[in-house]
Design goal:
Number of strands: 22
Helix content: 25-40%
Structural class: alpha/beta
CATH topology of the largest domain: Rossmann fold
CATH superfamily of the largest domain: Peptidase S8/S53 domain
Shape: elongated
Largest sheet: 7 strands, parallel
Strand order of the largest sheet: 6-9-5-10-11-12-13
Strand content: 15-25%
Number of helices: 15
Number of domains: 3
CATH class of the largest domain: Alpha Beta
CATH architecture of the largest domain: 3-Layer(aba) Sandwich
Radius of gyration: 27 Å
């Protein structure tokens, strides 16, 4: 039976009545569909009253970033949804205001046959046929100074490689006041595990919602999102500290780890819209889509132009709405499909590949470019041997994948933005790229290279060090010093810094050699027992890094 088309709200009701009077429904296996509506013409919501559908935090973020309200912000017309559900045995799963559509589940073939006859329905597409498939998990590869080590434990390397420890310690930014949305496959036992006790104690998980199976428990599904959260917010004293430990979090399950269907992209769209409505600043996603259990839904490389797949279009919308999406590049670098997946091709987002502790590209890290020729990934971070949680979630372990390099960058990006709230998401991304190790010669393996977040912070503050390429000793601080001082420098090709301290008569009283990481900006803390025992007064310090030498009169405090 087909519903008769009528125009206007009365036509909607008439169509529904015809459906309700139909014959007994036939049943089939549960399936999932995307239903595209024609318009928002009769919505009860108004752009003049956005407080009805956006949180105060979201409104504040829009005002701060001068992002205008538009029709994409208006919710799907609730009357359309009510009429749709009245058509038969149909379950509303998710809704998308950005695409003016809903995701539904149904076994009612007769009701589904009539949906296109409804005057407010433009299109209906199957996302998942509901037939059982073999179970499959998310792809997974097996396998400084004392005070900083005490803080980060084994996680120090993955943080200090990007100078995140300086952002935390010197900049004082650990994500305070920032809201990060994580879209993933589940956050197994994050509501009870010790690594998240600190974030729970301060009520830093502001919302947890299951969009893959609405009404489900995100804390009872998948350790993948739990591992991502640990890289961001984990806190195990002396063993692990995440990159944004004091940020607040929205945890959204959009992925079903046991299958791969296009509906999961649409779950992500709804998740991004939810995060927008709550006022999230940064989105962290360690998901990517190329092939599906239903091969007719597969993406091609040509689709990766940022304008074709729905999830990539949505990621671009999220960026235009003022959020900063950070996405993993993918783990297909050694596969026949070695490219990034959707939504890593989106415009306006930050895509992260993987390196190891020695800054070498991980073979599995997916490569660029996008189909339209843009450099991807944007940057890289430790993704081979990232320090996260073990299978039990009780202790640390080395884990592999761009799934874990991405949240390392997402957390530090939030901390950087915390220090520069007057800047746009695009300005933050630009600073991160410009700070990276090969910003002057980006490629489609490492992108712009390994980012230096302290350098990006200085750049955003008006001190541009991104042009440094050869050794340069910049400063010694604080002056006068007490039991330590910091040397600010650019290592260039040098792997060490040599220090010599002389008294007022020119006599050598102390020397030291400190290893450096070549081609990085550094602020090296020099802390030695002899410094605290020195008499107060004037000294001369020589600092040698490669061909650069700085001789400076320094003063020991009383």
């Amino acid at each position: 039976m087909r519903a008769v088309r009528h125009s206007g709200p009365g036509g909607v009701l008439a169509s529904v009545l015809l459906l309700l009077c139909g014959p007994v429904v036939a049943q089939t296996a549960p399936a999932t569909y995307w239903v595209q509506f024609t318009d928002k013409a009769h919505t009860p919501y108004s752009l003049e009253a956005p407080e009805a559908f956006l949180s105060p935090r979201a409104l504040e973020r829009r005002a701060h970033d001068q992002v205008p309200f538009d029709s994409l912000d208006l919710p799907v017309d609730p009357a359309y949804i009510t009429a749709l559900l009245a058509a038969g045995d149909i379950e509303l799963l998710n809704r998308s205001k950005w695409f003016n559509a809903v995701t539904i589940g149904s076994t009612d073939t007769l009701a589904l046959d009539t949906l296109l006859g409804l005057p407010f329905v433009r299109d209906v597409k199957m996302l998942c046929d509901g037939r059982p498939r073999p179970s499959r998990a998310l792809d997974k590869l097996e396998g400084l100074e004392k005070d900083y080590t005490d803080t980060y434990g084994s996680a120090l390397r993955q943080v200090s490689m990007m100078n995140g420890h300086l952002l935390h310690a010197v900049g004082g930014a650990r994500g305070q006041g920032m809201l990060i949305g994580i879209l993933d496959a589940g956050f197994d036992r994050a509501d009870v595990l010790p690594a998240f006790a600190a974030v729970r104690a301060r009520q830093g998980i502001v919302l947890a919602r299951d969009l893959a199976h609405p009404g489900g428990n995100v804390f009872g599904e998948s350790a993948h999102g739990r591992s991502v959260l640990a890289v961001l917010a984990g806190d195990l004293e002396g063993r692990l500290l995440g990159t944004a430990p004091l940020a607040d979090y929205v945890l959204v399950r959009t992925e079903d780890a046991n299958s791969e269907y296009l509906v999961e992209e649409d779950n992500w769209v709804s998740g991004a819209e939810l995060c927008d409505s709550l006022g999230c600043d940064v989105l962290s996603t360690s998901l990517g889509y190329t092939v599906f259990d239903d091969s007719t839904q597969d993406h091609t490389y040509a689709d990766l132009d940022g304008l074709t797949t729905r999830i990539s279009i949505a990621a671009g919308i999220a960026a235009r709405k003022g959020m900063l999406p950070v996405n993993s590049a993918g783990n297909s670098g050694e596969a026949s499909w070695h490219y990034i997946g959707a939504p890593a091709d989106a415009f306006g987002i930050l895509v992260v590949g993987a390196v190891d502790d020695d800054r070498r590209l991980a073979g599995f890290s997916s490569r660029g470019p996008t189909a339209d020729g843009r450099i991807k990934p944007d940057v890289c971070a430790v993704g081979r041997g990232t320090v996260g949680l073990n299978d039990s979630g009780q202790d640390i372990a080395r884990i592999n994948g761009t799934s874990f390099s991405a949240p390392l960058v997402a957390g530090l990006t939030a901390c950087l933005w915390q220090l520069h709230r007057d800047r746009s998401n695009a300005a933050i991304i630009d600073a991160v790229r410009r700070s990276a190790s090969q910003a002057d010669r980006p490629d489609n393996d490492l992108g712009y290279g390994i980012p230096d977040f302290w350098r990006a912070h200085l750049l955003l503050g008006g001190r541009d060090l991104t042009g440094l390429r050869t050794e340069d000793v910049l400063d010694v601080m604080p002056m006068p010093f007490g039991d330590f001082f910091d040397v600010e420098l650019f290592a260039g090709g040098s792997a060490r810094m040599d220090l010599d301290l002389y008294d007022a008569l020119g006599r050598s009283i102390w020397s030291s050699s400190t290893p450096l990481e070549p081609h990085t900006y550094a602020r090296v803390r020099v802390q030695d027992g002899i410094l605290s025992r020195l008499r107060a007064g004037a000294y001369v310090l020589d600092v040698h890094v490669g061909a650069s030498r700085l001789t400076r009169r320094v003063v020991k405090a009383e």
